[in-house]
Amino acid sequence: MPRVSRITSYRDPPLVPPYRLQRALRALRAGGVIAYPTEAVFGLGCEPMSQQAVRRLLALKARSWTKGLILVAAEPEQLAPYLAAVPAPLRQRALATWPGPVTWLWPASARVPSWIRGRSRRVAVRVSAHPWVRALCLGYGGPLVSTSANHAGALPARSALATRARFPGALSALLAGPLGGAERPSEIRDLANGRVLRPGAPSK
Q1: Is residue 126 in a domain?
Q2: What are phi and psi of 78, to 5 degrees?
Q3: What SS3 state is found at 57?
Q4: Cis (ω within 30 of 0) for the bond into 87?
Q5: Burial of 18 by CB count in 10 Å (0-12 exposed, 13-18 middle, 19+ buried)?
Q6: DSSP label at 101?
Q7: What is the domain-level CATH number for residue 116?
Q8: Is 150 exposed, middle or buried (0-12, 13-18, 19+ CB in 10 A)?
Q9: Cα–Cα–Cα angle for 159, 134, 181, nearest 5°?
Q10: Residue 26 belongs to what H/E stretch?
């Protein structure tokens, strides 16, 4: 099994090599699908407002559009256009967990297309603490689709090598870098009541 590199501390995280970052950003702007390291696994991403790009991503995963997709951002402000207004206590509930590996199901604004929210009226959103994810979103100027690098029902890839093997020749760019050290993909919670819908990694 290939060695999986991880970020063990965000205090002094490794910087993204500029040439790798620019290659990934060019692919995103051209409507491509990229792979990149996240908190626990490698993810697939694309421009959320491009139906063609999202269709390409879903086809790679063999995933139904009805399930919806997560949007990941570098800061809450990047998500604002996609979120409906909610009472202040609910907003604070989410902000208290960000940046971090917690995804919230939030009422979607009218801007969110069906290919992102699926059949739901809510959108799954997260502000990441992973420095490479943040660099991607800041460089791109907005949130990206974030879904695990796997075919539907299969285990997600946890290395660049495994990601490339799962999608040979199909990715527009692969940003090879360290994972964030979490044992599981992000926890998913319901903003309305705080209920955990998918558990994340246990606290240490």
Answers
A1: yes
A2: -65, -25
A3: helix
A4: no
A5: exposed
A6: S
A7: 3.90.870.10
A8: buried
A9: 40
A10: helix 18-29
The reply to whether 53 falls in a domain is yes
Residue ranges, the chain, pLDDT below 70: 1-14, 200-204
Model pLDDT for residues 28-49, shown as the tens digit of each residue: 999 999 999 999 999 999 999 9
- Classify 43 as helix, strand or coil: strand
Beta bridge partners, 45, equal: 34
Token pair of 119 as six digits: 């059949």
- Cβ distance 87 to 73 under 8 Å? no
How many structural domains comprise the chain?
1
Is the distance from CB of 135 to CB of 16 less than 8 angstroms? yes
Range of the domain at 27: 18-194
Is residue 8 in some structural domain?
A: no
137: in domain:
yes
Exposure of 96 by Cβ count < 10 A (0-12 exposed, 13-18 middle, 19+ buried)? exposed
